[in-house]
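[Discussion] Sanity-checking designs against the backbone

I'm trying to build intuition for which residues belong where. Below is a structure token string of 124 positions. I'd appreciate it if someone posts a full sequence so I can compare it with mine line by line.
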């Protein structure tokens, strides 16, 4: 008669459970990485959309005297235009303007007012 082994686990079972746990952790880490990349892409696209909205409003105001508008943004922290540059930056995401600004413009708030008075565009 053979004695039954009770309460013992073989090395093969421990090894296979360890491999399955290792695979599970690798998949978990990859999933977390992809999630953060997707969030970064979403933030970039939102900033790009805000940049294009501001650019479109500036271009429209340039061609329409007496035009004024206020744009409201929830996630915009920093809007800037460098002197003698045709690039608009929103949270370090750039888009182009069809003309250059003579002075540097920094707007770090949630609303941007755009005015065209006598052919001069003013941002505040």
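Best answer:
Here's mine. Compare freely.
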């Amino acid at each position: 008669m053979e004695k039954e082994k009770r309460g013992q686990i073989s090395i093969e079972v421990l090894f296979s459970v360890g491999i399955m746990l290792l695979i599970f952790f690798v998949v978990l880490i990859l999933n977390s990485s992809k999630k953060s990349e997707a969030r970064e892409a979403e933030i970039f696209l939102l900033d790009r959309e805000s940049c294009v909205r501001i650019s479109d409003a500036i271009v429209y105001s340039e061609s329409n005297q007496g035009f004024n508008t206020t744009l409201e943004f929830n996630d915009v922290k920093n809007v800037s235009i460098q002197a003698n540059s045709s690039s608009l930056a929103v949270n370090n995401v750039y888009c182009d303007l069809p003309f250059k600004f003579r002075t540097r413009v920094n707007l770090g708030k949630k609303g941007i007012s755009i005015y065209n008075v006598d052919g001069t565009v003013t941002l505040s």
